[in-house]
Every structure is written in C-alpha cells, then in structure tokens.
Amino acid sequence: MNNGIKSTEQGLASLASGTAPVAAGTGGATPAAGSGGGGALGAAATGSAAPSPQVQITSTASQLAALEQSLQAQPEVDAERVRRVQSALADGSYRLDPSRIAGGLLQSEQTLATL
Q1: Closest to 24 in 3D by CA, of 3, 53, 43
Q2: CB neighbours (10 Å) of residue 30?
Q3: Which of 37, 65, 66, 103 is deepest in the core (most CB within 10 A)?
Q4: In this predicted structure, what is the pLDDT of residue 75?
Q5: DSSP state of 99
Q6: Can you give the pLDDT at residue 36?
Q7: For the segment 42-64, what is each residue's pLDDT rounded down to a tens digit?
Q8: Which is nearest to 115 in space by CA: 61, 77, 38, 68?
C-alpha cells in the first residue's frame, strides 16, 4: 500500500476513534500540527500563551463599518415618504424625472468606482 494513502487512512481512523491524527508521511510517529502535540492548539491547551493574530483593517473597510453603524441608526422604511408616494400615485400626481434617475445612477457608479 502507498505510504501516503496509509498515512491518510491512519489519520481518518484516528479521527474516527478520537485519537490524535498523525502528520502525513511519518508512518504514525509524529502528531499532526494542532492535534495537541506541540502545535498552536497544544500550546493553548497547556496554558502557554500563543501569539495573537494581527488584523489590519483598510480605510475602505473602516468607512464601510462606519456606514453600517450609521445605517443601523436609521429606520428601515421612511413611513412619511411611503405615505407621500402612495398619495401621489393614488391621485395621479406622481411624476418620474428620467434625467434625475440617470444622474443618481451615474453618481452611484462614480462613487463605487473610487472604492
């Protein structure tokens, strides 16, 4: 049997039985990283401090987070605007301005392009 296949089968068997998996190609002699045999998880389990992962947030991500927070403060639906549009539709006075719609779409596209 191929050594790689044998190691994979041993790893799967040990996972199924609840024992620590072994690193591939070692014939079962070396615990796999993170299995409690000295890897990062093993260090955490023994109480020694592992280095904290570093996360860097881009300015765009910061802007999106701020936007999300400001949007959460807003109501989901502007009830007064809905009432005005319903009234205008009912009495036939609702008018669309195609150039205003096109301008808004272009402005949105330009804003998104800068992100």
Answers
A1: 3
A2: 14
A3: 37
A4: 85
A5: H
A6: 47
A7: 444 555 677 788 888 788 888 99
A8: 61
